[in-house]
Amino acid sequence: MRGITILGATGSIGQNTVDLIARRPDDFTVEALTGGHNIDLLAKDARRLGAKLAVTAHDNRYADLKAALSGTGIEVAAGQGALMEAAQRPADWVMSAIVGAAGLAPGLAALERGAALALANKETLVCAGPLVLETAARSGADLIPVDSEHSALYQALLGEDMASVERVIITASGGAFRDWPLEQLAAATPEQASTHPNWAMGQRITVDSASMFNKALELIEAKEFFHLDPEIIEVVVHRESLVHALVGHIDGGILAHLGPADMRHAIGYALNWPARVDLPVERLNLAKIGQLTFEAPDPARYPALAIAQRVMRRGGLSGAAMNAAKEVALDAFLDSRIGFMQMAEVVTRVLDRIETDSGLIDAAFDLDNVLSMDQIARAYAWENVNSGVAAVT
Ligand SMILES: NC(=O)C1=CN([C@@H]2O[C@H](COP(=O)(O)OP(=O)(O)OC[C@H]3O[C@@H](n4cnc5c(N)ncnc54)[C@H](OP(=O)(O)O)[C@@H]3O)[C@@H](O)[C@H]2O)C=CC1
Ligand SMILES: CC(=O)[C@@H](O)[C@H](O)COP(=O)(O)O
Ligand SMILES: [Mn+2]
Question: Highest taxon of the source (predicted)?
Protein backbone atom coordinates (compact mmCIF):
# COMPACT_ATOMS: atom_id res chain seq x y z
CA MET A 1 0.00 0.00 0.00
CA ARG A 2 1.31 3.45 -0.89
CA GLY A 3 0.43 6.47 1.21
CA ILE A 4 -0.99 9.35 -0.82
CA THR A 5 -1.54 13.04 -0.08
CA ILE A 6 -3.35 15.34 -2.49
CA LEU A 7 -2.72 19.07 -2.10
CA GLY A 8 -5.57 20.84 -3.92
CA ALA A 9 -7.82 17.76 -3.94
CA THR A 10 -10.98 19.75 -4.73
CA GLY A 11 -9.64 21.22 -7.98
CA SER A 12 -9.55 19.89 -11.52
CA ILE A 13 -6.21 18.06 -11.16
CA GLY A 14 -7.13 17.04 -7.62
CA GLN A 15 -10.39 15.47 -8.76
CA ASN A 16 -8.70 13.56 -11.59
CA THR A 17 -6.23 12.25 -9.02
CA VAL A 18 -9.04 11.25 -6.65
CA ASP A 19 -10.67 9.39 -9.54
CA LEU A 20 -7.54 7.31 -10.17
CA ILE A 21 -6.95 6.60 -6.46
CA ALA A 22 -10.59 5.63 -5.84
CA ARG A 23 -10.40 2.98 -8.58
CA ARG A 24 -7.65 1.08 -6.70
CA PRO A 25 -8.60 0.99 -2.99
CA ASP A 26 -6.32 -1.99 -2.32
CA ASP A 27 -3.21 -0.19 -3.58
CA PHE A 28 -3.43 3.18 -1.82
CA THR A 29 -4.10 4.65 1.60
CA VAL A 30 -4.85 8.36 1.81
CA GLU A 31 -2.81 10.28 4.34
CA ALA A 32 -4.22 13.76 3.73
CA LEU A 33 -6.48 15.73 1.38
CA THR A 34 -6.40 19.52 1.24
CA GLY A 35 -8.79 22.00 -0.31
CA GLY A 36 -9.90 25.59 -0.05
CA HIS A 37 -13.49 26.79 -0.08
CA ASN A 38 -15.12 23.66 -1.44
CA ILE A 39 -15.79 22.07 1.95
CA ASP A 40 -18.56 19.71 0.78
CA LEU A 41 -16.38 18.13 -1.90
CA LEU A 42 -13.38 17.88 0.43
CA ALA A 43 -15.48 16.16 3.10
CA LYS A 44 -17.12 13.84 0.57
CA ASP A 45 -13.76 12.67 -0.81
CA ALA A 46 -12.19 12.38 2.63
CA ARG A 47 -14.99 9.99 3.58
CA ARG A 48 -14.92 8.14 0.28
CA LEU A 49 -11.14 7.57 0.35
CA GLY A 50 -10.90 7.09 4.13
CA ALA A 51 -8.38 9.93 4.48
CA LYS A 52 -6.63 10.28 7.82
CA LEU A 53 -6.61 14.10 7.64
CA ALA A 54 -8.65 16.75 5.81
CA VAL A 55 -7.42 20.35 5.69
CA THR A 56 -8.99 23.53 4.37
CA ALA A 57 -6.54 26.34 3.62
CA HIS A 58 -8.96 28.86 5.15
CA ASP A 59 -9.04 29.29 8.96
CA ASN A 60 -12.59 30.60 8.85
CA ARG A 61 -13.86 27.37 7.22
CA TYR A 62 -12.64 25.11 10.06
CA ALA A 63 -16.04 24.82 11.76
CA ASP A 64 -17.75 23.92 8.46
CA LEU A 65 -15.23 21.17 7.71
CA LYS A 66 -15.36 19.89 11.29
CA ALA A 67 -19.16 19.67 11.08
CA ALA A 68 -19.06 17.98 7.68
CA LEU A 69 -16.75 15.25 9.00
CA SER A 70 -18.18 14.83 12.49
CA GLY A 71 -18.42 11.26 13.65
CA THR A 72 -16.02 9.95 10.99
CA GLY A 73 -12.80 9.92 13.03
CA ILE A 74 -11.10 11.87 10.25
CA GLU A 75 -8.77 14.50 11.68
CA VAL A 76 -9.67 18.04 10.62
CA ALA A 77 -7.50 21.17 10.46
CA ALA A 78 -7.45 24.59 8.81
CA GLY A 79 -5.09 27.37 7.77
CA GLN A 80 -1.61 27.74 6.31
CA GLY A 81 0.14 25.94 9.15
CA ALA A 82 -2.19 22.97 8.77
CA LEU A 83 -1.52 22.92 5.03
CA MET A 84 2.21 22.69 5.69
CA GLU A 85 1.64 19.91 8.22
CA ALA A 86 -0.48 18.00 5.71
CA ALA A 87 2.34 18.30 3.15
CA GLN A 88 4.81 16.88 5.67
CA ARG A 89 2.74 13.87 6.71
CA PRO A 90 4.41 10.53 5.97
CA ALA A 91 3.00 9.97 2.50
CA ASP A 92 5.00 8.14 -0.17
CA TRP A 93 3.54 10.23 -3.01
CA VAL A 94 2.20 13.77 -2.89
CA MET A 95 0.22 15.48 -5.64
CA SER A 96 0.98 19.22 -5.83
CA ALA A 97 -2.23 20.63 -7.33
CA ILE A 98 -2.90 23.87 -5.49
CA VAL A 99 -3.23 26.69 -8.02
CA GLY A 100 -0.73 29.57 -8.10
CA ALA A 101 2.28 30.54 -6.01
CA ALA A 102 0.31 29.35 -2.95
CA GLY A 103 1.36 25.83 -3.96
CA LEU A 104 5.09 26.51 -3.66
CA ALA A 105 5.72 26.22 0.10
CA PRO A 106 3.59 23.08 0.68
CA GLY A 107 5.18 21.34 -2.31
CA LEU A 108 8.66 22.22 -1.07
CA ALA A 109 7.77 20.90 2.39
CA ALA A 110 6.75 17.54 0.89
CA LEU A 111 9.98 17.38 -1.10
CA GLU A 112 12.03 18.23 1.97
CA ARG A 113 10.49 15.29 3.79
CA GLY A 114 11.46 13.05 0.88
CA ALA A 115 8.05 12.21 -0.61
CA ALA A 116 7.83 11.67 -4.36
CA LEU A 117 6.25 14.90 -5.61
CA ALA A 118 3.93 14.79 -8.60
CA LEU A 119 4.14 18.37 -9.81
CA ALA A 120 1.06 19.83 -11.48
CA ASN A 121 1.64 23.25 -9.89
CA LYS A 122 3.81 24.81 -12.61
CA GLU A 123 4.28 28.00 -10.59
CA THR A 124 6.59 26.04 -8.27
CA LEU A 125 9.33 25.75 -10.91
CA VAL A 126 8.62 29.17 -12.42
CA CYS A 127 9.11 30.90 -9.06
CA ALA A 128 11.83 28.76 -7.54
CA GLY A 129 13.25 26.22 -10.00
CA PRO A 130 16.81 26.02 -8.61
CA LEU A 131 15.54 25.86 -5.00
CA VAL A 132 13.09 23.07 -5.84
CA LEU A 133 15.61 20.94 -7.72
CA GLU A 134 18.23 21.46 -5.02
CA THR A 135 15.72 20.47 -2.29
CA ALA A 136 14.80 17.29 -4.17
CA ALA A 137 18.46 16.40 -4.72
CA ARG A 138 19.24 16.95 -1.03
CA SER A 139 16.35 14.86 0.32
CA GLY A 140 16.56 12.24 -2.43
CA ALA A 141 12.91 12.84 -3.33
CA ASP A 142 11.63 12.07 -6.83
CA LEU A 143 10.09 14.97 -8.73
CA ILE A 144 7.74 13.82 -11.49
CA PRO A 145 6.12 16.31 -13.88
CA VAL A 146 2.35 16.28 -14.33
CA ASP A 147 1.79 19.24 -16.64
CA SER A 148 0.85 17.43 -19.88
CA GLU A 149 3.70 18.89 -21.99
CA HIS A 150 6.31 18.18 -19.33
CA SER A 151 5.04 14.67 -18.70
CA ALA A 152 5.26 14.19 -22.48
CA LEU A 153 8.84 15.51 -22.56
CA TYR A 154 9.78 13.35 -19.59
CA GLN A 155 8.46 10.28 -21.40
CA ALA A 156 10.04 11.22 -24.75
CA LEU A 157 13.41 11.87 -23.09
CA LEU A 158 13.56 8.57 -21.15
CA GLY A 159 16.88 6.86 -21.90
CA GLU A 160 17.99 9.64 -24.27
CA ASP A 161 21.36 11.37 -24.09
CA MET A 162 20.61 15.08 -23.46
CA ALA A 163 23.75 15.95 -25.45
CA SER A 164 21.97 14.79 -28.60
CA VAL A 165 18.88 16.96 -28.00
CA GLU A 166 18.86 20.06 -30.20
CA ARG A 167 15.19 21.11 -29.91
CA VAL A 168 12.38 20.79 -27.42
CA ILE A 169 8.92 21.72 -28.70
CA ILE A 170 5.85 22.19 -26.54
CA THR A 171 2.44 22.50 -28.11
CA ALA A 172 -0.24 25.11 -27.43
CA SER A 173 -3.91 24.81 -28.32
CA GLY A 174 -4.12 28.56 -29.04
CA GLY A 175 -6.81 28.95 -26.37
CA ALA A 176 -10.29 30.38 -26.47
CA PHE A 177 -9.52 33.24 -28.87
CA ARG A 178 -7.30 31.55 -31.41
CA ASP A 179 -9.75 32.32 -34.23
CA TRP A 180 -10.81 35.78 -33.08
CA PRO A 181 -9.74 38.84 -35.10
CA LEU A 182 -6.78 40.37 -33.26
CA GLU A 183 -8.49 43.75 -32.79
CA GLN A 184 -11.37 42.14 -30.85
CA LEU A 185 -9.17 40.64 -28.15
CA ALA A 186 -9.04 43.87 -26.15
CA ALA A 187 -12.79 43.55 -25.52
CA ALA A 188 -12.80 39.84 -24.58
CA THR A 189 -14.69 39.18 -21.34
CA PRO A 190 -13.70 36.93 -18.43
CA GLU A 191 -16.57 34.61 -19.31
CA GLN A 192 -15.38 34.28 -22.92
CA ALA A 193 -11.81 33.67 -21.76
CA SER A 194 -12.92 30.96 -19.33
CA THR A 195 -13.55 28.34 -21.99
CA HIS A 196 -11.01 25.99 -23.54
CA PRO A 197 -11.24 24.30 -26.94
CA ASN A 198 -9.94 20.93 -25.69
CA TRP A 199 -9.22 20.65 -21.97
CA ALA A 200 -11.52 20.78 -18.91
CA MET A 201 -9.46 22.68 -16.30
CA GLY A 202 -9.71 25.21 -13.48
CA GLN A 203 -10.69 28.77 -14.44
CA ARG A 204 -7.29 30.38 -13.86
CA ILE A 205 -5.28 28.06 -16.10
CA THR A 206 -8.06 28.22 -18.70
CA VAL A 207 -7.79 32.02 -18.95
CA ASP A 208 -3.98 31.66 -18.97
CA SER A 209 -4.37 29.34 -21.96
CA ALA A 210 -6.33 32.03 -23.81
CA SER A 211 -3.60 34.64 -23.16
CA MET A 212 -0.82 32.05 -23.51
CA PHE A 213 0.52 33.01 -20.11
CA ASN A 214 0.05 29.29 -19.48
CA LYS A 215 2.54 28.52 -22.25
CA ALA A 216 4.84 31.27 -20.95
CA LEU A 217 4.89 29.56 -17.55
CA GLU A 218 5.43 26.22 -19.27
CA LEU A 219 8.46 27.48 -21.22
CA ILE A 220 10.11 28.45 -17.94
CA GLU A 221 8.92 25.21 -16.30
CA ALA A 222 10.57 23.19 -19.11
CA LYS A 223 13.81 25.19 -18.90
CA GLU A 224 14.02 24.59 -15.14
CA PHE A 225 12.90 20.96 -15.02
CA PHE A 226 15.10 19.70 -17.86
CA HIS A 227 17.99 22.23 -17.44
CA LEU A 228 17.48 23.47 -21.00
CA ASP A 229 19.07 26.33 -22.87
CA PRO A 230 16.06 28.66 -23.51
CA GLU A 231 17.18 29.05 -27.12
CA ILE A 232 16.28 25.43 -27.93
CA ILE A 233 12.72 25.52 -26.54
CA GLU A 234 9.96 26.24 -29.05
CA VAL A 235 6.17 26.64 -28.92
CA VAL A 236 3.98 25.49 -31.78
CA VAL A 237 0.23 25.99 -31.99
CA HIS A 238 -1.47 22.61 -32.32
CA ARG A 239 -5.24 22.94 -32.33
CA GLU A 240 -6.04 19.32 -31.53
CA SER A 241 -4.06 19.08 -28.22
CA LEU A 242 -3.16 15.48 -28.97
CA VAL A 243 0.58 15.90 -29.52
CA HIS A 244 1.78 17.33 -26.21
CA ALA A 245 5.49 17.79 -26.83
CA LEU A 246 8.29 16.79 -29.20
CA VAL A 247 12.03 16.28 -28.81
CA GLY A 248 14.34 16.92 -31.77
CA HIS A 249 17.75 15.25 -31.97
CA ILE A 250 20.97 16.26 -33.74
CA ASP A 251 20.40 13.58 -36.38
CA GLY A 252 17.15 15.27 -37.47
CA GLY A 253 14.85 12.75 -35.80
CA ILE A 254 11.91 14.04 -33.76
CA LEU A 255 10.17 12.00 -31.06
CA ALA A 256 6.61 13.09 -30.32
CA HIS A 257 4.36 12.18 -27.40
CA LEU A 258 0.66 11.77 -28.25
CA GLY A 259 -2.23 11.08 -25.94
CA PRO A 260 -5.86 12.06 -25.32
CA ALA A 261 -6.63 15.46 -23.81
CA ASP A 262 -7.28 13.82 -20.45
CA MET A 263 -5.05 14.67 -17.50
CA ARG A 264 -5.55 11.20 -16.05
CA HIS A 265 -2.85 10.05 -18.47
CA ALA A 266 -0.15 12.39 -17.07
CA ILE A 267 -1.39 12.00 -13.47
CA GLY A 268 -1.56 8.21 -13.82
CA TYR A 269 1.91 8.15 -15.34
CA ALA A 270 3.28 10.08 -12.35
CA LEU A 271 1.31 7.95 -9.88
CA ASN A 272 2.65 4.66 -11.22
CA TRP A 273 6.10 5.84 -12.33
CA PRO A 274 8.44 4.16 -13.15
CA ALA A 275 5.89 1.47 -14.10
CA ARG A 276 3.21 1.93 -16.74
CA VAL A 277 -0.24 0.60 -15.89
CA ASP A 278 -3.58 0.40 -17.70
CA LEU A 279 -5.28 3.80 -17.34
CA PRO A 280 -8.97 4.66 -17.89
CA VAL A 281 -8.34 7.05 -20.79
CA GLU A 282 -9.48 7.01 -24.40
CA ARG A 283 -7.18 5.29 -26.92
CA LEU A 284 -6.56 7.56 -29.90
CA ASN A 285 -7.89 6.37 -33.23
CA LEU A 286 -5.48 8.12 -35.59
CA ALA A 287 -7.35 7.19 -38.75
CA LYS A 288 -10.49 8.76 -37.29
CA ILE A 289 -8.60 11.87 -36.17
CA GLY A 290 -7.31 12.14 -39.74
CA GLN A 291 -5.04 15.15 -39.44
CA LEU A 292 -2.91 16.96 -36.92
CA THR A 293 -2.17 20.64 -37.58
CA PHE A 294 0.71 22.89 -36.55
CA GLU A 295 1.15 26.67 -36.84
CA ALA A 296 3.63 29.25 -35.59
CA PRO A 297 2.23 31.38 -32.72
CA ASP A 298 1.51 35.03 -33.63
CA PRO A 299 3.61 37.25 -31.28
CA ALA A 300 1.09 40.12 -31.50
CA ARG A 301 -1.73 37.85 -30.32
CA TYR A 302 0.36 36.21 -27.60
CA PRO A 303 2.74 38.79 -26.01
CA ALA A 304 3.17 36.46 -23.02
CA LEU A 305 5.59 34.33 -25.03
CA ALA A 306 8.08 37.21 -25.40
CA ILE A 307 7.71 37.90 -21.68
CA ALA A 308 8.75 34.31 -20.94
CA GLN A 309 11.80 34.70 -23.20
CA ARG A 310 12.73 37.84 -21.31
CA VAL A 311 12.40 36.09 -17.95
CA MET A 312 14.40 33.06 -19.07
CA ARG A 313 17.21 35.33 -20.30
CA ARG A 314 17.17 37.52 -17.15
CA GLY A 315 16.99 34.61 -14.72
CA GLY A 316 17.30 35.14 -10.96
CA LEU A 317 14.02 35.80 -9.19
CA SER A 318 12.39 37.33 -12.29
CA GLY A 319 10.22 34.20 -12.67
CA ALA A 320 8.71 34.77 -9.21
CA ALA A 321 8.07 38.42 -10.15
CA MET A 322 6.49 37.54 -13.47
CA ASN A 323 4.22 34.93 -11.93
CA ALA A 324 3.06 37.20 -9.10
CA ALA A 325 2.35 40.07 -11.51
CA LYS A 326 0.47 37.68 -13.77
CA GLU A 327 -1.64 36.41 -10.85
CA VAL A 328 -2.61 39.98 -9.94
CA ALA A 329 -3.30 40.90 -13.57
CA LEU A 330 -5.48 37.80 -13.90
CA ASP A 331 -7.44 38.74 -10.75
CA ALA A 332 -7.88 42.27 -12.13
CA PHE A 333 -9.05 40.92 -15.50
CA LEU A 334 -11.47 38.46 -13.86
CA ASP A 335 -12.82 41.42 -11.87
CA SER A 336 -13.23 43.43 -15.13
CA ARG A 337 -10.78 46.06 -13.92
CA ILE A 338 -8.38 45.65 -16.83
CA GLY A 339 -8.81 44.35 -20.36
CA PHE A 340 -7.64 40.99 -21.68
CA MET A 341 -4.59 42.36 -23.54
CA GLN A 342 -3.66 44.58 -20.60
CA MET A 343 -2.62 41.59 -18.51
CA ALA A 344 0.62 41.40 -20.49
CA GLU A 345 1.08 45.18 -20.15
CA VAL A 346 0.83 44.98 -16.36
CA VAL A 347 3.35 42.13 -16.20
CA THR A 348 5.75 43.99 -18.51
CA ARG A 349 5.59 47.16 -16.37
CA VAL A 350 6.23 45.17 -13.21
CA LEU A 351 9.26 43.45 -14.77
CA ASP A 352 10.59 46.83 -16.00
CA ARG A 353 10.41 48.16 -12.45
CA ILE A 354 11.74 45.03 -10.74
CA GLU A 355 14.72 44.90 -13.09
CA THR A 356 15.70 48.51 -12.39
CA ASP A 357 14.81 49.20 -8.77
CA SER A 358 14.89 45.94 -6.86
CA GLY A 359 18.26 44.43 -5.99
CA LEU A 360 16.31 41.40 -4.84
CA ILE A 361 16.20 39.98 -8.37
CA ASP A 362 19.73 38.57 -7.99
CA ALA A 363 19.35 37.44 -4.38
CA ALA A 364 19.95 33.82 -3.39
CA PHE A 365 17.25 31.30 -4.28
CA ASP A 366 15.81 30.65 -0.83
CA LEU A 367 12.13 30.55 0.09
CA ASP A 368 12.20 33.86 1.99
CA ASN A 369 13.67 35.72 -0.99
CA VAL A 370 11.27 34.10 -3.44
CA LEU A 371 8.28 35.02 -1.25
CA SER A 372 9.61 38.57 -0.78
CA MET A 373 9.93 38.96 -4.55
CA ASP A 374 6.40 37.59 -4.92
CA GLN A 375 5.07 40.20 -2.46
CA ILE A 376 6.94 43.12 -4.06
CA ALA A 377 5.77 42.18 -7.55
CA ARG A 378 2.18 41.85 -6.33
CA ALA A 379 2.34 45.31 -4.74
CA TYR A 380 3.78 46.83 -7.95
CA ALA A 381 1.14 45.08 -10.05
CA TRP A 382 -1.73 46.32 -7.87
CA GLU A 383 -0.26 49.85 -7.95
CA ASN A 384 -0.28 49.57 -11.72
CA VAL A 385 -3.86 48.35 -11.84
CA ASN A 386 -5.07 50.92 -9.29
CA SER A 387 -3.31 53.80 -11.06
CA GLY A 388 -5.71 53.30 -13.93
CA VAL A 389 -2.88 53.00 -16.48
CA ALA A 390 -4.25 49.60 -17.38
CA ALA A 391 -7.93 50.35 -16.77
CA VAL A 392 -10.62 49.00 -19.06
CA THR A 393 -11.55 51.76 -21.53
N1 LIG B 1 -6.35 21.59 -14.64
C2 LIG B 1 -5.46 21.02 -15.42
O3 LIG B 1 -5.78 20.16 -16.25
C4 LIG B 1 -4.01 21.38 -15.30
C5 LIG B 1 -3.54 22.15 -14.23
N6 LIG B 1 -2.22 22.39 -14.09
C7 LIG B 1 -1.76 23.17 -12.92
O8 LIG B 1 -2.21 22.49 -11.75
C9 LIG B 1 -2.53 23.42 -10.73
C10 LIG B 1 -3.99 23.21 -10.33
O11 LIG B 1 -4.81 23.56 -11.43
P12 LIG B 1 -6.38 23.26 -11.42
O13 LIG B 1 -6.61 21.91 -10.83
O14 LIG B 1 -6.85 23.57 -12.78
O15 LIG B 1 -6.90 24.38 -10.42
P16 LIG B 1 -8.31 24.48 -9.69
O17 LIG B 1 -8.62 25.93 -9.55
O18 LIG B 1 -9.30 23.60 -10.35
O19 LIG B 1 -8.00 23.86 -8.24
C20 LIG B 1 -7.14 24.52 -7.36
C21 LIG B 1 -7.09 23.79 -6.04
O22 LIG B 1 -6.29 24.57 -5.12
C23 LIG B 1 -7.12 24.97 -3.99
N24 LIG B 1 -6.70 26.33 -3.66
C25 LIG B 1 -6.99 27.47 -4.33
N26 LIG B 1 -6.36 28.51 -3.76
C27 LIG B 1 -5.67 28.00 -2.69
C28 LIG B 1 -4.82 28.59 -1.70
N29 LIG B 1 -4.56 29.91 -1.68
N30 LIG B 1 -4.27 27.78 -0.77
C31 LIG B 1 -4.52 26.45 -0.77
N32 LIG B 1 -5.33 25.84 -1.68
C33 LIG B 1 -5.88 26.61 -2.64
C34 LIG B 1 -8.54 24.86 -4.48
O35 LIG B 1 -9.45 24.70 -3.40
P36 LIG B 1 -11.04 25.08 -3.53
O37 LIG B 1 -11.43 24.87 -4.95
O38 LIG B 1 -11.68 24.12 -2.56
O39 LIG B 1 -11.17 26.51 -3.09
C40 LIG B 1 -8.43 23.60 -5.35
O41 LIG B 1 -8.36 22.46 -4.54
C42 LIG B 1 -2.24 24.81 -11.33
O43 LIG B 1 -0.95 25.20 -10.97
C44 LIG B 1 -2.34 24.57 -12.84
O45 LIG B 1 -1.55 25.48 -13.58
C46 LIG B 1 -1.28 21.94 -14.98
C47 LIG B 1 -1.69 21.21 -16.07
C48 LIG B 1 -3.09 20.90 -16.32
C1 LIG C 1 -3.52 20.08 -19.80
C2 LIG C 1 -2.37 20.99 -19.71
O3 LIG C 1 -1.25 20.60 -19.53
C4 LIG C 1 -2.61 22.44 -19.87
O5 LIG C 1 -1.53 23.19 -19.35
C6 LIG C 1 -2.77 22.68 -21.32
O7 LIG C 1 -1.49 22.76 -21.87
C8 LIG C 1 -3.56 23.90 -21.56
O9 LIG C 1 -3.73 24.10 -22.91
P10 LIG C 1 -3.00 25.21 -23.78
O11 LIG C 1 -2.16 24.44 -24.75
O12 LIG C 1 -4.14 25.92 -24.39
O13 LIG C 1 -2.19 26.08 -22.87
MN1 LIG D 1 0.19 22.17 -19.84
Answer: Bacteria
